[in-house]
Input
Amino acid sequence: MTVLDPVIHYLLTCGRKQVTLHEVMLGADRPRRPVLRVLDKLAREGYLRQVADHRRPPGWMEYGPARRNPTWRIVGDLSDRPVKTRTLPACQRARIWKVIRAKRRFTKADLVITSGASPATVDEYVRALERAGYVRRTGRDGRRVTYLLVRRDQVDYPKITGRAS
Output
């Protein structure tokens, strides 16, 4: 569960009064640092305005400088805040295919570095593409095998099922 929802819910129950970080932590029942990040984010977006910052000395068994204990005033309507839908990251095979189409001549190490996929995933996918006829081996670049994209007509990544043998 995110920290944003309970913090916004607590702020909506507070109305337009001033709130401190400590009050929001207790009201949202969340740790200090994530609540502070959420409140700073809401201040950047224009829903809150920082009124004061009363530094608190370290508590018992705490070390370091005095901690921030800002006070905010709610200036925007938090109920109108747009809810962002969570976008899923592109699947690894789609990223690998995008790199293959861009490079056309590649090694597996190139794909691992540029796509960010794991070496095992790249190895499995390149073997499957080779069996299906999308890529072929063209030679060696030092110790690594180079591949060439043969079928360039497909824009979306090929959805090949099954494991490479």
In short: The longest helix spans residues 119-132. The chain has two domains: 4-77, 92-149. The helical segments are 4-14, 21-28, 32-44, 92-103, 108-115, 119-132.
